[in-house]
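Researcher: Please generate the 3D structure of the following complex. Treat every line as part of one assembly.
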Amino acid sequence: MGKSGAGKTSMRSLIFSNYTAHDTQRLGATIDVEHSTVQFMGDLNLNIWDCGGQHKYLDNYLTEQKENIFGNVEVLIYVFDLETSNRESEYVLYDDCLANLATFSKDAKVYCLVHKMDKIGDPDQKIATVESYRRALAKRSDMFKPDVYGTSIWDHTLYQAWSQIVYKLVPNMGIIERHLKNFCKLTDASEVVLFERATFLVVCYTSPDQSVPLDKYMGASQSIKQYRNICSQAQSPFRSVQMRNKNSTLFIEPFTKSTYILVITTDPEIEPAVTKANIEAAKSHFIKLAD
Amino acid sequence: MNGYGGGGGPGAGNNGIGMYGPPNGLGNTGPAADIGLEAEHTVHNSEEQLAERRVLFMGLPRSGKTSILKVIFEQELAYDTLSLMPTLQRTEHRLITGISVYDFPGIDDFSDSQYSLINPEIYAGEFTSLVFVVDSQSDIQSSLTSLFSVVRSAQSVNPHIPINVFINKVDGLSDELKQDIQHDIQQRVLKNMGYENLNSANVHFLLTTIFNESIREALSKVVQYLVPRNSSLETILNSFCSKSSLDKVFLIDAATKLYLATDSSPTYSPQYVFACQTIDAMDEIAGMCPVQTSEGEVDSAMQRITIGLDGIAEVFIYQINGNLSLFCIGVSQVINQTSLLEFNGSKIAKAIRKILPP
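Model: Done. Output below.
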């Protein structure tokens, strides 16, 4: 949901259909509602309703079709355009959406993405802008407690926001996270990250060292995904990467049928072959877990 | 795009008339000590005196010379170089092997500008190469007129100077149109040189644009013949290829992604484009590894990357030192024998480090 031209379809194409940021310039306006179903983590089917943002559609959603649109919603992602001329009118629309949501699906989770953050150059101002949105939105949406993220299709912030969104969606995340922690301990790895296979979103990550910044995995999501496109253009689909430095080894390997795993070890005593064997051995366990 | 290693015509089909043979008088004939000395000198050369091994970039104003060099040497994005100030002074960009690339101010009018002041000696020397950039989307005739003036004064000093005509800004043109433009320019240049009795044996034509890797490929071809002892390098890479049954090896300069040498099997441009893109992606991924503490020149300290692909070939990247990497393409059975590759790689790396001291 969001106003016309906010970038809803752009972000959907980027995450779920392998578009590059440049490609999205070609996209036209979305007519009515585009339904798409995405298989995520194998068995989780995400039904994504990309709602056209033009006035006539929006009015339609809020009046005639409200039951249809707002019924059975698990997650509402509302996209704010940073460049909007009239912030107040955006909020009015947002209020209407939430009011409907409250009637038809009370338990839905609301995410607000303040989009096109790349238009602001200064990092301090970026934070301030997101903060101002956050305060304004918190006042307006008392029962939903929305999460607010600043995003842009030109850097990894979009991946970051979406990773958080899917993290809440995957049902048995707690179990997966616990087993991943265990795996990390058993292999003596310094970092283990689980990526979803199709979108390369970060599903789950763990590290004995708590201070690891999450940002770098998001950057990796983006670059691996881009590289995978390049590989398939060269007719040799991407499978795995093994990178060895003086004191660290990095693996990116296909894991279960819906995930990729990234393992970084920093102990020079650990032979890469051992880590690789460990990944192989853990595979079957995680496949069982997914079932 | 054809799959690399697969079909495709022999040679990189559209790259001008000649295959790139070593230019006259340039083999590995010179004694090694001599070459080592030359490399020493170039480092200390100031603006006044040009480096021994040099590439001269010339062309009309706004033909894209500075853009090209910014994209390659300063890693700027192509989109950011669209509005650059005209170059007023000769600027120098250095490649690691003692090769310098000089960016000259655009030639407006050959007779009156600073060009008349240019000492023709800059064209002299065995290791000088001229790049003339022609803007394919503007008046080609005036470009060619100044090209002939440059060639005349260059050949009066150095009859064997390689002349590379970069037909620039071909992005957005269809393949057919590109071929037409190249053919047209080629005809006009060669005919005119024939009339004027100029030596056209060392003229090469390359289609380039800063929006893809074609510009790197073109400049690689120019630079390769200036690399010290290039034929020994090729021999080394050939033996690496045959001993380890690899399909293709590039010796790549990390900063600019130009290839300084490759084995003698035909080079398909998709292969090189893929190499560039792979190196870009791997740089980003490598950013995730913890920062390396000490930059020792110990062999085992350098980076090794194996990339598994489900296609015809896989990739192995062997870092020789901070500046150079070997980019190897081979079938998966070969790439999976990492220990063999690393052993061979370490021998090759040792040899290359001797030829190209950092």
